[in-house]
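Table 4 source record.
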Amino acid sequence: MQNTVHHRHYWGRTIASFLLVLFTMPLGHALMMIMGKFMDPVALHYAAFLMGLVGFIIVVAGVFVKGDTRQTIYGLFGGLLFWTGWVEFLFQYYARRYGTQPETTPWGHVTQPEYLLMPMTFGLWMMVMTLYIFCTRTGCCFINWCQHHLFGRRCSDIVARPMTRHTAIVTFMELNVMTWTTYILLMFCYDGRFIGDDSPVVTIVGAGCLVASAFMFRKELRLPAWGANIRMAIATVIVFWCPVEIMARQRLFTEIWIQPEKYVPQMVTILIAFIIVLVYVLWAAFRKPKNH
């Protein structure tokens, strides 16, 4: 008689975790656009630096917080502020300071200068990936796949142990490294000297990421713990956002978060939905179970 294993699916917390992370994408873009359009350049970069500093402090504070879910929340929001303030805005500052020009596609889509500079960091990205692939065991399926195929039977000898685990730092690094990776990937795809917007490769990359995000969401459904579910949602949303960016670049829909001042009702709706989901996630994750 054949044994069948049935996996329980946690639809409520998976959808909530996915939406929590997903809503941060348009809201983060909108925040950058609003700050860039309505703040004085000097004040803007001071505010951005302060934003990154606050994010860094939140992540470090998360190391000393007890609880996997709490540390995950600290890592998520600290990482978002860190990336926006100390990565994107810093690229923007130096792009403007040294006169890097935006790039416009034949159909009018504009790529801001700070994103055009992202491929310059490929060597730094490889340096970080070398550390993860050769020096540590992780929970990342992609890195585990690389280690298995690179090292084979010697995998346990070469990556013998994990780094010291602080969930806030793990979440922070997952968010930033994956965001960094997808930016570099898309910028190389868009660059006509490498691939180009009109290449079918760009469509294939978008379709591949969409399919991959579906499989990742399926895996996320099986995670009962809020912390693990949110961390999986971060990876799922970042991969899912790649085809969103590609479709927007191909003018298949309007990116309302690029001009939030023109789409106030829509952006306010997204903000309210984000707050509702955030309150629900915090309540559900941190409430004390009833004694029976």
